[in-house]
């Protein structure tokens, strides 16, 4: 997405001609002066990996959410050691380009974090940490959580992290000061009563709301974007709670009735998810069920969760989040390719969004909040629950000579372990893997070779470029080469006892209860007996401003569909267009018209990937042109539509055709015919390339976050029932509810891109479950 981080001739010319660089300096925050500390100046492998659990290697014990069926989770400001102490690990003298590194001052890093207490608030169960200490719940044992927002604002406490991480008031966001109508697309606006300007960072009470990612929960307790609440008692329109808590609290009840797996919770406030999660508001949530989990998995000291993230820091060891006042050091790469360090330049369109950057790319790799850590391990099998907790960066991780097996993805276990050569995760995705260190010794470096943006961005390893470096013998130098390393394992501990855990190499470690199949898991085939009730064809569309990306939309529709004339015409009551029925099965086709891979996440419902297939992006099979032409000639009479960009004639208008009444039907691979197609986008017939590819083995089970690749249609089958409910052959269950709650009640759910910078600026849509 980010023009300034794609090394092509057109991209560099667009950046150099369309973006005014901030003069000098490297200050990230508009409120608190900072000096950026380039990531390559930070020494690697000098910190220890923090571990949770009951094992001998655990720094903190996980929170038992079974014996503590009611807990209090406070959102607080805290601090912890993140970077290595320069006295113990002298920092590097020069950066990647040979420039002198600034002298750092070591101090604990200020964070926002979840802190866990007993339900009555009398005893602390876990201190504030980054990520927060994991909650361990049990299937069939509901958990009641009181969430309390105690985050300080900069206007009250100048030491608040809010002074370092800038919230942009010109995007569609939580807006506790109620300035949205003044500020949206108008950075020069001023509130006539308070005198607050739109082009200044937000400094009011912090809106926040936790979302249990992967949870099958009532929408009232889903932690949706408009369910936010502040320390001062201000609330979003979708705020819901049990009982009558304090004004800065919300009480959620999680049924924990779903199949076991690796969930996580994180902040989801509208328009400030990227800043709140960047600040540290995330945590694992394990849902266990000994009766159905794979038998004899590595446990205790040998089961370790890892949140793998990227961040930037200043010379005072504090988080550094670009808001437009820091330099982009890649500009000279067009004429003289050099390694880049800071990929985060000024906002692409400051005349519209003062501080919003399209995609954040950090230059320091963190695991469990520690920079490039080391973990000492025994020569045996370990289970690692991995989370990509980045704003935007994709990880493709390898583990040296150690064999790696996937046993689960997102919140679900696989029927059988899948040997993998790398762990490939987009933001929001989880991978549950077994890494076998048996017979190994010494240091093993976890490496990463995924470019950012993905797949056509800058790479941490040397690469070729059709314009700059076309000769494979003389490739472009790596950008942020320090990001090619993530952490190290030190196989130096003596083996304790005998490793009796399940062995994935011997086809052990699979599910006890087989996956209920909607697909055959190998691509192209819908499972026998599955009746599809509806097809939705939905596009991902990026729109450009004068300086680069302005916003990315799902189905060319804004978060508030009433802002999109086509959707408003078809759904004039609330602008919500996705209305799946409870119990139904739908085939979604995500047609990616952008240049980026977008991780698409659905709340409440899990799905199974059917396949991916390329479509034509140029004549004579040019689907983007056909999509644009479907708006008609002349274009709709709307101020949104013009003829300035032939491929983007109506940004934000909604789909070009009526959403559900254009009469299109389709036939499915299982022989089902006459299935209605919704979404308002032209048929793909005549534009598909026929290169259908199946899901990777590790993504063949249940998922709720999937990579939608550019130039491809990604197909998945979603079913609005719990994943454990069996299929009734050739029978539609539409209209029947199998959840232990009513999914049609409450404020509803959302689906969105899990690149946090994208979802914070319109790449998210609400949906309602219908009866």
Q: Tags for this entry?
A:
28% strand, 771 residues, 6 helices, single chain, eight-stranded mixed beta sheet, 5% helix, seven-stranded mixed beta sheet, mainly beta, globular, 37 strands, disordered N terminus
Task: Describe what you observe in this structure.
The chain is mainly beta and 771 residues long. 5% of the residues lie in helices and 28% in strands. The chain is built from six helices and 37 strands. The strands form seven sheets. Strands 26, 27, 28, 30, 31, 32, 33 and 35 form an eight-stranded mixed beta sheet that branches. It has a seven-stranded mixed beta sheet with strand order 16-15-13-18-23-20-21, with no helix packed on it. The longest helix has 10 residues, at 9-18. It starts with 8 loop residues before the first helix and ends with a strand.
Radius of gyration: 25 Å
The N- and C-terminal alpha carbons lie at a distance of 38 Å
Rounded mean pLDDT is 92
Instruction: Determine the strand fraction and express it as a percent band.
Output: 25-35%
Count the E strands.
Answer: 37
Question: How helical, in percent, are the residues?
Answer: under 10%
Spans of at least 5 consecutive residues whose pLDDT stays below 50 are 2-27
Helical region count?
6
- Major sheet, described briefly? 8 strands, mixed
Please state the overall shape, judged from the principal axes of the Cα atoms. globular
Classification by helices and strands: mainly beta
